[in-house]
Design brief:
The complex is a heterotrimer. Chain A has nine helices and ten strands. Chain A is α/β, with parallel strands linked by helices. Chain A starts with a strand and ends with a helix. In chain B, strand 1 and strand 2 (139-142) form a beta hairpin. In chain B, strands 1-2 form a two-stranded antiparallel sheet. Classes of the chains: A alpha/beta, B mainly alpha, C mainly alpha. The interface between B and C is large, with 43 and 41 residues. Chain A: This is Branched-chain amino acid ABC transporter ATP-binding protein. Chain A: It comes from Infirmifilum uzonense.
């Protein structure tokens, strides 16, 4: 049984349904990629999985449990971690405070333990522990955001266009880290990406979303190889 | 004379500090200009008054009770109204709603005052608290001066520790900056905001208790000082907690001096609000973010 | 007969409130600016009557005023009224002059209010305007020569030249006539391109500005109109009550009028009329109840709570009000059909 099962899900804002009838499953230790043209609803779908936008229909099942109508903060506590594209750190707080916040529900010693683990993956953070986040560069903030997502020791990490504001070099590093996370730490990753080519190369399964409709669901390699779809929708 | 002005100013500023920092808190969490802030103070007054009548204890000892009652009312207002409107109403609507809350609270207090009068056979309005005088180094000092100053310093210090040294405080500051990110990280933002409002109401209620030691109060007293509270927060910078405190002392002393000037010219002290009004207009037209925007480089 | 008088009376009050509601609707419903100094503009109309009507009457009669205003305005008001019963012209003069005085002042104040409306955020503007209206009230309350301070000012009955039975009818006719005229003009405005511009600014200032709309001028126009309308309502109100007391014009009045617009429906031409109707119905019912049932609780306070809760409830559960705003009418439905038939591309 999959870690995350999405059944016929439709999400949107207020009176407007953006995404309709989406079905997919994310397995354990799987890298699942969601791609599609601009405005196709990828981010909205992710927000819907986390409960931040209106659910028009369908179900979201995490680890066998129906979380469709659970408040977002409770989903977070169940092992689902969500890294938004923008506004993923608290800029007026220090790096340290951000990390404390990310692990707010952990007892002291567990926090210290996990922090050590995260700092192994992202050692650069140690350098600016006491600085306020708004003094950091884009790449550094992204790093902090990733660290915060990881601190929650999730089973499934959902990332919304993590490479969007980054240089190609940094973007590569992010994809690298995603692979490492899966390999060394057994995480499942749900990745929404504009940078379709790179994402599909590291992905196991893929979902192609066009104007809120699912147009492809299957092995990522197959999508890459399907010339028609890839050319039409991904500019590949 | 000068000494008296200073002491009056200090006492008044202490109250304004507690009230305007609460106003900032409600503004920061809910984006609303809370027209009921003064009424939270009045809630505290009546809580202390009632308890004092029943237990025959001086209101100074009843500050914690006032705090709790004020906190409960404010938390209730948040949960029943502003939490439901989170992200759904624009600034003007929120303001109109807060005026409605002010009207409801004031009317409720009026009814309570009537009930108090008829059931306990005491004055429900226009009452004062009897102060305790102390001998400090040979001079007679009024209790309200000592207690208000000590309480204000204590509560502000406590608030600082809470906000910057505890997890709850960090969660509060984080939720204020970005509530949806806080939710994402598993923080129960509703709980955090409720606590913020509770703090705001509690601080206001405590401030309120000191008022009857200086002047007769009635259910509309809260609204009467509302303008000064707004002025204090505006001058200091409504979105800055430290700014509000600073603004409170600046405005508190200014208003005290102004009132003194009014009466020495022979004008009615009913024109006292003119200073607060002018302060608001000047600040908003010249530096809308208040004094704190001058030292805050980040927006 | 009593019922007729009651209804005529109610009709006048309804007209006054409806005019106020329209004034709020234009500013708040259409343009999105809450003019929280509304009660000050309303007061301005009433204060003009209170300060001027009796004085002008006395002056025109050639009588010298003896004694302080606050103690004697009532006596002189009655004197003027009895003179009016012989001199219709006097009645008309004391009705018209306060109007002529109040309107330009209200317009001017509205103009001033529109300036900070530019620079201030909506809620700061609201606070400023409320403070202003409270200051006006405090001034009127304390500066006794104006309106007699807390004693209030007496107002002569400008229709004293008519037989008693006709006075209510005449006043009703004047009030309703004004309402209909104002509403008709308002309807023209709201369905005209100018009305569309207002709503465009309300909904998205930046976009409206990029279309080259002079927001500064438009705000000024709207606030001037709104303030003048409120002043007219104030003049009517002063004559309706027969006296002017500063404490009648508090923030509560502003709130009530905003409540009417919210209940009736923001952005809809019938909204103010419906809202005023609902409020008056509720208000009268409460007054009626007060006489029937005696409760340990003061009914006035209870009614305030009721209105507060009503406003919050409407905003939470039916924010569009009784009569929702309809999407803009530009081309009529039938024209669209014809165009479709002619073949769309």
């Amino acid at each position: 049984m999959g870690l995350l099962v999405v059944e016929n899900l439709s999400v949107g804002y207020e009176k407007m349904e953006i995404v309709s009838g989406v079905n997919f499953t994310v397995e354990k230790e799987e890298i699942f990629v969601i791609v599609g043209p601009n405005g196709s609803g990828k981010s909205t779908l992710l927000k819907g999985l986390f409960g931040l936008v209106r659910i028009f229909g369908g179900r979201v099942i995490l680890g066998g449990r129906d979380i469709t109508h659970l408040p977002p903060y409770k989903r977070s506590l169940l092992g689902l971690s969500y890294l938004p594209q923008l506004g993923n750190t608290f800029e007026s707080l220090t790096v340290w405070e951000n990390l404390v916040l990310a692990a707010h529900d952990l007892p002291r010693d567990e926090f210290t333990g996990r922090l050590e683990n995260v700092l192994e993956i992202l050692p650069d953070i140690k350098r600016f522990m006491n600085r306020k986040v708004h003094t950091l560069s884009g790449g550094e903030r992204q790093m902090l955001a990733l660290a915060m997502g990881l601190l929650r020791n999730p089973f499934l990490l959902m990332m919304d266009e993590p490479t969007a504001a980054l240089s190609p070099k940094l973007a590569s590093r992010v994809f690298q880290q995603v692979l490492e996370l899966r390999k060394n730490h057994g995480l499942s990753i749900l990745l929404v990406e504009q940078n379709a080519l790179k994402a599909l190369e590291i992905g196991d399964k893929a979902l192609l979303l066009v104007s809120g409709q699912p147009k492809f669901y299957g092995p990522a390699q197959d999508l890459l190889k399907s010339e028609e779809l890839a050319r039409l929708y991904l500019g590949v | 004379m000068l000494e008296e002005i200073f002491l009056n100013g200090l006492i008044y500023s202490n109250l304004l500090a507690l009230l305007s920092i609460g106003l900032s808190l409600t503004m920061l969490t809910s984006k609303v200009s809370n027209f009921a802030q003064g009424d939270f103070a009045v809630v505290g007054i009546y809580a202390a008054y009632t308890t004092s009548l029943l237990t025959r204890v001086t209101p100074y000892m009843l500050l914690p009770i006032a705090f709790l009652v004020g906190a409960a009312v404010a938390a209730g207002v948040y949960l029943l109204v502003f939490d439901k409107l989170r992200g759904k109403a624009n600034l003007v609507t929120l303001m109109i709603v807060s005026i409605a809350i002010d009207i409801i609270l004031r009317a409720s207090t009026q009814i309570y005052a009537d009930l108090l009068q008829s059931s306990l056979h005491v004055f429900g309005r226009g009452f004062i608290f009897n102060d305790i005088m102390y001998n400090v180094a040979g001079t007679r000092v009024s209790g309200v001066l000592i207690y208000s100053t000590v309480t204000t310093i204590f509560l502000l210090a406590l608030l600082y520790v809470l906000l910057f040294k505890t997890k709850l405080g960090i969660a509060m500051r984080a939720s204020i900056e970005n509530p949806s990110l806080a939710e994402t990280l598993g923080i129960n933002v509703r709980k955090v905001f409720t606590i913020s409002w509770g703090l705001s109401g509690g601080l206001a209620a405590v401030a309120g208790v000191f008022l009857p030691f200086r002047m007769p109060v009635n259910p509309d007293t809260g609204f009467a000082i509302l303008l000064s509270i707004f002025a204090a927060a505006t001058v200091g910078g409504m979105t800055s907690l430290a700014g509000s405190v600073l603004g409170a002392y600046i405005l508190g002393f200014s208003e005290t001096v102004f009132t003194f000037l009014l009466s020495s010219i022979g004008l009615s002290t009913a024109y006292r609000p003119a200073l607060a009004f002018t302060a608001i207009i000047l600040t908003l037209l010249v530096a809308p973010g208040g004094l704190s925007s001058l030292w805050n480089r980040k927006g | 007969m009593d019922l007729l008088l009651f209804l005529l009376d109610l009709g006048v009050l309804y007209s006054i409130y409806a005019i106020l509601a329209i004034s709020v609707e234009i500013e708040y419903g259409e343009l999105g600016i809450p003019n929280f100094a509304k009660s000050a503009m309303y007061a301005l109309g009433a204060y003009s009557v209170g300060a001027l009507a009796t004085r002008i009457g006395v002056w025109l009669m050639g009588v010298t005023w003896q004694g302080e205003f606050k103690n004697t305005s009532w006596v002189y008001a009655t004197l003027v009224s009895s003179n009016i019963s012989r001199n219709p012209l006097l009645g008309i003069i004391i009705f018209v002059i306060p109007l002529i005085v109040a309107l330009p002042i209200a317009a001017f104040l509205g103009l001033i209010a529109s300036y900070p409306a530019l620079r201030l955020r909506e809620d700061y503007l609201g606070i400023t305007l409320i403070a202003f209206s409270e200051l006006v009230r405090v001034f009127a309350r304390n500066y006794e020569p104006l309106l007699g301070g807390t004693f209030g000012a007496g107002v002569p009955n400008f229709l004293a030249f008519l037989p008693v039975q006709l006075r209510s009818l005449a006043f009703f006719a004047i009030a309703i006539g004004l309402l209909l005229l104002i509403w008709a003009l308002y309807y023209r405005l709201t369905t005209s391109p100018f009305g569309r511009v207002l709503r465009a600014i309300r909904d998205n200032q930046v976009a409206a500005q990029s279309l080259g709309r002079d927001i500064v001028k438009i705000r000024a126009i709207v606030l001037v109109i709104g303030s003048m309308l409120a002043a007219i309502a104030g003049v009517l109100y002063a004559f309706y009550v027969g006296s002017v007391n500063p404490d009648d014009f508090t923030v509560m009045k502003t709130f009530i009028v905003v409540l009417m617009v919210v209940i009736g429906g923001k952005g809809s031409p019938m909204g103010p009329l419906a809202g005023a109707g609902v409020y008056i119905a509720l208000d009268r019912s409460i007054t009626f109840l007060k006489q029937q049932v005696s409760l340990p609780i003061d009914i006035n306070y209870f009614s305030y709570i009721l209105f507060g809760v009503l406003l919050i409830s409407v905003i939470m559960w039916r924010p569009e009000g009784l009569i929702p705003e309809k999407p803009p009418l530009t081309v009529s439905g039938s024209t669209l059909e014809v165009r479709e038939e002619q073949g769309s591309s």
